Fold this sequence. Notes:
This protein has helices spanning 28-31, 114-117, 138-146, and strands at 2-5, 12-18, 39-55, 58-74, 81-90.
Amino acid sequence: GNIYLDIKTLAIVEVEFEVDPLKIEDAADRFVLKKPRNIKVRPQQAKYRVAFLKTGKKYHLNFIRCETVFRIRQKSQLFGSLYQTSLEMAVTQIDTTDIEKFRLKETVRTYEIFSDLIRQYEDSFWGIYNYIRPEEPLEEAIKNLSQ
């Protein structure tokens, strides 16, 4: 991968990396934690980009992008299908007042699966924060966020 540094401060401003295509199958258990017994899932590609933005004297998380490709097939099938996933997160506002460290029980372990943790989706959870629903047209989402 690539690491981009700010020349003056030597701070990391962006990182781009991917799992070595020759080693990705060795890391399959890190990508696929749960699946039905009759399904075979093989990761094919995993690329990441993380960017930071300077706010005042500190750099803060600004953007995350993750792209993965999986080959999925039922054990009874000869050939499977390729599925691509992508995830993006952009930080739109940083508030550094009254910062408190998360308690351990409020954090997520690397082995936990989010789908196991979320019981029911509620719009009220997001409160005043900006979010875009996957099914929402992008033009409408941008209009709503700019208001």
